[in-house]
Amino acid sequence: MIRAVLFDLDDTLFDHRYCAREALDAIRRDHDALATLEPFELDRRHAAILETLHLRVLAKEISLDAARQERFRRLLEGAGVSLEQLQDGSVARRAATAYRTRYLQSWREVPGARSLLCALKERVRIGIVSNNLTLEQHEKLRFCGFDAFLDAIVISEEAGAAKPDPVIFQIALERLGVDANEAVMIGDAWGTDIAGARAAGLRAIWFNPSGISRPEPWKGVDEIRSLEPVSEVISLILRGDDPSEPRP
Predict the structure, then answer these.
(1) Is the pLDDT of residue 137 over 50?
(2) Annotated active-site positions, please?
(3) Residue 130 burial class via C-beta count within 10 angstroms: exposed 0-12, middle 13-18, buried 19 and up
(4) Which end of the chain is more exposed for a tag (fewer CB within 10 A), N or C?
């Protein structure tokens, strides 16, 4: 029986991808070098740099502000902006500020997220398991109104462990007062959310709105492309399969 549901936050409940694209579009118009890149390619390059620096921020190897500036220095340099133009840091700093401003203005939930949490709240305990900085994630939860539905919030910065480490999932289970076989994890990132949940003994549901191919052919992982219709998603969540049970 499923008694608890764990969710990733970014790009599962909170629409980080949309916010990032809106912000990139804003700075793309202000920099000729970035304007020469197709939006998809700009998004791909930015995401790769962000992921690399994000890991360093979580490891406390670099400050958040320094990482933001370095992200755009690398992005602009890769698009052909000269080292001379980037030398004093002002160009990258302005790009980072413009991006952050537009990113904050674009905050929104993944369609159906709040309705899903509201409907689940009547039936199960709900937790968040997120790899990020504590303050930023709590601000997103409050902004979207998700915090009203949550029984546990576990963020890597304060937990001292990050997905896919099973430890962070165990912390969430302990705070929710359930065993692994009584919980399900829903997330968009296969390598952290899905692999991590499985390693911790949880059933996992992969949120895959882009319809990309599975990195691994695991039969015990269900897949959803949307959080809507809510009734169908809830039926799948509460089905309660054993995560080790083979599926056809």
Answers:
(1) yes
(2) 8, 10
(3) buried
(4) C
pLDDT digits (tens, 9 = 90+) for 151-202: 999 999 999 999 999 999 999 999 999 999 999 999 999 999 999 999 999 9
Choose among 29, 11, 7: nearest CA to 19.
Answer: 11
Residues 6 or more apart whose Cβ sits within 8 Å of residue 38: none
Query: If DSSP states are collapsed to H, E and C, what string results for 112-140?
Result: CHHHHHHHHHCCCEEEEEECCCHHHHHHH
Could you tell me the end-to-end alpha-carbon distance of the chain, in angstroms, rounded to an integer? 21
- Dihedral sign of CA atoms 225, 227, 228, 233 in order: positive
**pTM over cut 0.85:** yes
Question: Homologous superfamily of 4-15+109-237 in CATH?
Answer: HAD superfamily/HAD-like (3.40.50.1000)
Q: Residue 224: enclosing H or E segment and its boundaries?
A: strand 221-224
- Give the tens place of pLDDT for each residue, 19-55: 999 999 999 999 999 999 999 999 999 999 999 999 9
